[in-house]
Design a protein that fits this description.
Length: 290
């Protein structure tokens, strides 16, 4: 039934992805994390920002399965709500980078000439700085906050998306369907958005997926340094920083938020690797010729 509804290319994609065991594990883990984030208000046993000084720094127990922090807040509840913040942060940051970088790469790759030269030199100037340092500088000037961290991480990621899109467009614009569109009088924007973009979006999807993991990790690093989400926001990087000075006496304060970051980043990277392999055109050719 499914085979009769889905086009062959989609079936090939699902077949390739389903054969990749690590990618399937990553997808399952990511689905669990997303579900926990969506249903955090229903799952969390305590208010994530409500303090209880009498229960300060309690180790993991039946009541508090991940223990409490120095203010008596339930870490498990804060980790659940932190998933919401971290996933939203990653998606917003990658959306900024994908839209801005993708559009720059699309236009510069198609138009070429002086415009392409100027855009690429601008991107080279951006890439002269490590991405994390650039994000740190940007959020320093914008001011420490969750929204500014999203913007800073997104802007710092633009060069990679721009170069990926430009490289794909340079190859695609020489194809016959582009020449045919030009011959019938299609406008440049019609050709770019209607003909080239749908055929070069696959690499951008792959790096955007992996980019979500990088954005989450970078934003957590900014929050750890006090430049991202501010207390009492239950953001994983902020939580890890708050528990850092108590690491010897209360290891659970930093360990569980750190573990949440690690599992989320690994699962997204596994999904990204699976998408990269499944969207490889060579795999489709092998399936078709088999």
């Amino acid at each position: 039934m499914i085979r009769s509804i889905l086009p062959d290319s989609y079936m090939q994609f699902f077949q390739e992805y389903g054969r990749n065991i690590p990618a399937m594990i990553g997808a399952i883990l990511l689905a669990i994390i997303v579900a926990m984030a969506v249903f955090a208000p229903q799952i969390a046993p305590f208010d994530p920002i409500s303090i209880a000084p009498k229960e300060s720094a309690e180790p993991p127990s039946v009541k508090h399965i991940m223990g409490t922090d120095v203010l008596g807040r339930d870490i498990y509840s804060r980790v659940l709500f932190g998933a919401r913040i971290s996933l939203r942060l990653g998606l917003v940051s990658v959306s900024i980078a994908t839209l801005a970088g993708g559009m720059l790469g699309l236009v510069s790759g198609y138009r070429g000439g002086v415009l392409d030269l100027l855009v690429m030199r601008f991107i080279d100037a951006f890439q002269a700085f490590p991405s994390f340092m650039l994000a740190l500088v940007l959020v320093f000037f914008l001011g420490p906050s969750l929204f500014n961290a999203m913007v800073a991480v997104g802007v710092a990621s633009i060069p990679g998306y721009c170069r990926t899109m430009r490289g794909s467009v340079l190859s695609a614009k020489e194809n016959e369907y582009v020449l045919a569109a030009r011959s019938i009088g299609c406008s440049e924007w019609k050709i770019m958005l209607g003909h080239i973009l749908p055929n070069v979006v696959a690499p951008l999807i792959v790096i955007a997926t992996v980019g979500v993991a990088w954005a989450i990790l970078t934003a957590a690093g900014l929050s750890f340094l006090g430049m991202g989400a501010q207390p009492p926001t239950p953001e994983w990087g902020t939580m890890a920083n708050e528990g850092r000075i108590f690491l010897a006496e209360a290891w659970w304060m930093s360990s569980f938020p750190g573990l949440a970051i690690a599992i989320t980043v690994i699962s997204i990277n596994l999904v990204g690797d699976g998408l990269r392999d499944a969207l490889d055109p060579q795999d489709y050719l092998k399936v078709r010729d088999a």
